[in-house]
Amino acid sequence: MSIKFLLIFIAFGCTFLGMCWADEDVDNGYIFTSPKSLKKGQNNQLQFIRFGCLDSSALTVQLFYKKNYNSNETLAQQQTYNIPKGNKDALLNFFVKPFNDTDYVYNGRLQINGTMCGKPISGSDEVQFSNTNANIYIIQTDKPLYKPGQTVKFRVLKVDKNLRPSDKTNDTADIYVEDPRGTRLFQFKGVQLGKGITQNQFPLADEPVQGTWTITVSKNKDTQSTTFDVKEY
Prior knowledge:
Blueprint: E1 3-11, E2 14-21, E3 28-33, E4 37-40, E5 43-51, E6 57-66, E7 74-83, E8 89-95, E9 107-116, E10 119-131, E11 135-141, E12 145-146, E13 151-160, E14 172-178, E15 184-192, E16 198-203, E17 211-219, E18 222-230
Parallel strand pairs: 1-3, 4-10, 12-18
Antiparallel strand pairs: 1-2, 3-5, 5-8, 6-7, 6-9, 9-10, 11-13, 13-16, 14-15, 14-17, 17-18
């Protein structure tokens, strides 16, 4: 009996897909989905869909995080779900606890382990974190990919939970930029966000660290980020 292992993470219309299989004759398998951005301090809905073999099984979900690029992973929490026999589509509530040591983490990783038809299954993918708050920071760059030496232009719009832009004249936040190693290279202090869209820019060095960079908007314990890539192309 062959089993196809299929792991999918879905976020804002983007799908991250990984597969492995025993042979070409695939009769059994599963699909696991999770938000790419997990909200701290509330339930996040995961989904585990099985096809073929529907025996009773257990699925353990582990959440890891890193405080910065060079740090080791820390196990934040784990939860085991019992999937009843015959249950094809299971919706799993996964409550993400606030972290004890810091409210900002570099990134995280969701790991699943379990069995299906007596065979082990496992998979993982990176996730990000967001706080549960009434404000949303929309961060956009003028393009997703840059060459060394180019200028990165970005804009920020702060809206409330009803998607209304902030109109407070004293509404400010700090913005900082980190390279793939977690080194903070640019910082904009006290940026005014109460007058609609705020635009700014910064230059890349001729030989920057290539990979995925992060732009983060931070105010008190409220942080939200976006990423862009730097490489020769």
